[in-house]
Structure prediction request, 357 residues.
Amino acid sequence: MRLPKILFLLLSFLSLLPIIGQAKYTIKGKVNLQGDWQPQIYLAAIDKLNDYYRASPDLVISIAPIQTDGSFILEGDNLPKEARFYRLYLMKEQNREYDACLYFGLNDHNFIHIVLHNESQLEINAAADAFSPFGNYQVAGDATNQLMRQLSNMVYPSIEFYDFRFPTEQKLSAEKLQQDLKYFADTCSIPIVSLAAVNYTDFEEYFDIDSDFYEDFGERLKQALPNSIYTKNYFRKLNYYAFEEQAMTPNWMYWLIGGLSIGFLFMTGLAYYFYQQLARQNKIPVKSTSEEIALLYDKLTLKEREILALIQTGKANKEIASELFIGVSTVKTHINKIYAKLEVRSRKEVVSKLRKL
Prediction:
């Protein structure tokens, strides 16, 4: 007589398993809508470290309305089980998804970085007396995101998007931030937050000085997060900068390679000159404009191409530094390399050369 009852209870429990097994994340809270902000909040995935500051519609995984009092709720069950980086951000009225911008500092700071998995329960509330969307925000939910909040509080007041009276003052601020981030990464007990701190550091400016720190952290990351999508990504970034550092090492082998390269370029240039002469006599076809542009771009590194694209839009060095999250001095170094490779002497000549093509 008891068997049917037990069977009924077992079947009832089995019917609930899909519901019980389905995790669901929730992010709720309040933001400030003072200013020309759209009443929508975006959640973007960060699958690569280089996407940390890239606002693009292909990164968005969820959108939720913001009520008139600033409250919002983002929820779903489509996140991976492991913890990953995500970004919450707002857009200005004049922007659309394809041209979204991330604004740094002061009243326009419109984004925060958080760590989520499919069971995360977070509450994020901006201070009512602040002006920016996430001004003086507080996080409740877990220790990981409270540490992410602590990290952001260290980075953004120190970042190079404010006016300094003297170049030395700017340099000292950047150096202090670098040291603070290294200390934070070394002492933080949560590996993914330590990785966020290291990702905030200026690889361009400090890798050749602090290469041991970056390499040691890579070994720690391999031990702590061996299966994370960011670990392999970090080592790619590490190898890129390590290669650049080696390329700058002044020893006889590199001088020899450099000399051979110059000789090769000279012979290539000579051959190209005779090629053009023959082309003008209609003996062989002239290369297309797209081929000439491709030849120019092949000379540049990925970072130099990014900076060249921003130069073409008319952005100043400080604006380029802001957009690419690197130091102004680093931007100048890359621009000088671009000038040398494209055989020009100014921004005007760069734009003019590309327009002619």
About this structure: The beta strands are 25-30, 40-46, 60-65, 71-76, 84-89, 111-116, 121-125, 138-140. The two ends are 89 Å apart (CA to CA).
